């Protein structure tokens, strides 16, 4: 039995004890190592904790335990960049070569990729570049120099493909115009003004706190502490923030309050905050959650209501953030191992129904009967950068395999595998990872440049000729 930790609440209007009980029951049922749940509703805030920071030591998770929030970091980096836009230092629609004149990208894209492209994952740059350029303050500069050898998957501005490397590039732009390393610039532009006292970017800072260690499933099926802490420092602007759930809610309050900080002053103009959560592009597929993208924020529709949010995954840790502006509601779940996506669905469906009367969309399910999927038409290998998928025909039944290559091998717990896959439509497979309940879509499309592609995990993969 995991240890249950103290609940904190700012007001009795949120039933903190109830949500602690629900976290306890659902997290244990799903086999999650540790988690913190945070809820912000109007002026009221609460958090609840469950489990252990490290299954080897048994140290309990506290409500002030820091977790890696992974790609939710992208919203923070975007917010910092927009502060510089508001000050006239940056411009959303100028080429990034304006501020990085020596930048080199494949296909001369440096003179065409804009900050808006980077913040909407439409730069076309191959996204899963996890090159470790060291721990020095020049790590982002060296990382960006290395992008010269990274291919363009799509022409800039023509299509969506989730792009971690693009946000490292955003971080380098921030460094260039502020004269500070990204870590310091984030502190000065965002963490300090918002009072985010338990938000940090470096592991040596996290060690000063109760810190959650990621856990990964091993070959024998057990959940064990991960072999390393997190991503390389050069990927910091894309996924390097470590913080408490309470600080994530404070950041969420800033966005729900249209850029106002607790003292009532405006840190970011309302128009830019609204631009961040307004539709910039429609996604060319439905992944069961997201249907559009703002500036870094993903947009979702639940029961007719518009939400914004982002998820994060690092080495054995998951983070889920959803904001419902119409109800001044934000919910964050931080977890450090096990089937956290299933816990997220179980908890959030209850929270949003009870606090806002909003139903979470039903998860994707395999269809009954024939799907019309033409396995032979879609058979082939679909290539990304450091990652590929292969669709196979097993007597008319599709199967889906994947493999990691290059620098991605260093950040993945396993380097190849096969999904459980079921045909679900003419151009749609549903797949799920071993040990998880949730089905996800693999969508076959014709890309804007005419090539055949496959969208999996928000990323575009190009069919090999």
Automatic annotation (TrEMBL):
Q: Where are the transmembrane segments?
A: none
Pfam hit, one: Beta-lactamase
Sequence ranges assigned to domain Beta-lactamase-related in this UniProt record = 21-341
| PANTHER family tied to this protein | BETA-LACTAMASE-RELATED DOMAIN-CONTAINING PROTEIN (PTHR46825:SF9), D-ALANYL-D-ALANINE-CARBOXYPEPTIDASE/ENDOPEPTIDASE AMPH (PTHR46825)
Stated name of the protein: CubicO group peptidase, beta-lactamase class C family
Which species does the entry assign this protein to? Answer: Actinoplanes regularis
- Organism lineage string: Bacteria, Bacillati, Actinomycetota, Actinomycetes, Micromonosporales
